[in-house]
Amino acid sequence: MKKTAITNVAIFDGSGGQVFNGEVLIEGNRIVDVARFPNKIVGHADQVIDGKGKFLMPGMTEAHTHFSWNDQPTLAAIQMMPPEEHILWCVEVAKRYLDMGWTSAIGAAAAKARLDVVLRNAIRAGHCPGPRYLAGSQEITTLGGLGDMTLPHLPFPELSFGHIVSGPEEVRKAVRMFVKYGVDHLKINLSGEYIAGIPAELSPVSEEEIVMLTTEARRYGKRVAAHARSSESVKQCVRHGIELVFHASFADEEALDMLEANKDRHFVAPGIGWLVRTSFHASEYGITPEVAETMGYRRELEAAAESLSKMHKRGIRVLPGGDYGFAWMPHGTNANDLQYFVDYIGMTPSEALVSATRLGGEIMMRGDELGQIRPGYIADLVMVDGDPLQDLRILTEPSRIAMVMQDGIVHKQLRDAAPAEAALHLAQAGNPLLDKGVQEAVPA
User: Fold this and answer.
1) Which of 31, 45, 103, 429 is spaced 20 to 30 A from 361 at the CA atom?
2) Mean pLDDT of 140-161
């Protein structure tokens, strides 16, 4: 198999340790060696990519994605897109994520029953580029809950982006349907949402319905995710073993104690970007800061900052991602979450990057081979023009994402690589092409 060396880079390996200058050797789709300067491995390579001093980090994982959210200002606009256009939208968005260095993603919910599954299958088959992807169901919701958009004179559930259930048997049927379609996990809405006119503190799902969901999911070996803003809904996640907890804004001390006691089982993807952007950056779409405060989002942001800060201090795994795909927070700007983790949760920049890399590998259920730059790990790598530890916001700038490698294959590269033999020849000749990304290849 061809060996590729990435040289002359500052390496953030995802462990949380100090950045170091060095080189990475890749064979096939795996990292086989990592050298710290002045040690060198370039002589073992067939191809060399000169990083020119850039920052190299593991590919990031977005832990709460909605690829089918279509950058519109309303929930209704999401569902009204016809299915043919909708899957094409998802394909375009998947490439957008990969271009920005998100090499893995968790599908939090699809707007239509099979969108996530079809997209995941297309990515895996190589029909379109995108993050390695775990597909979610539609949002399973109760009658009148978040996701139920039916009207009294138009009682057509297919017009809702949620799959509406009422009672345990309807929950059982929903789980079996989505399992038949091929989802990786089920999603249920355990709390409300202000923008839908339902208090975030509300917990509308009965214990019997949750038991049915989790029992059926386990029967088929599926994980469960939950929209859980209220404190009670977070406790329901812990009581019933729901692994993926989305939001958790109003978690009280009892909920925090429960999460901490089970922190090796649960992940929290809070979607703090939604609270920040909706509170302060949605005026163009009718949600001024004053309107957002009236809706309840300013109060929720304050509560979330406090509860998430406590989670982080307690060692509960908090990861970036959530609800990007609205007009005031379009897909591709997801790395804003990392700066918000610093500003609102109190993480250091290094901790924020760990949450997107090492913890990302864990939420993908591949923590032993994803999310770090270590021998034996899959070569999902991102090269950045600049130092994110000094300014995390550069990860939102497409031009600063200089290279994206997924599974050992370069997906995006602003400068060409060259065969090792060509690099050696150019070096000996003093060719100025060396200044455009080709490094001298000499024996180690």
Assistant:
1) 45
2) 77
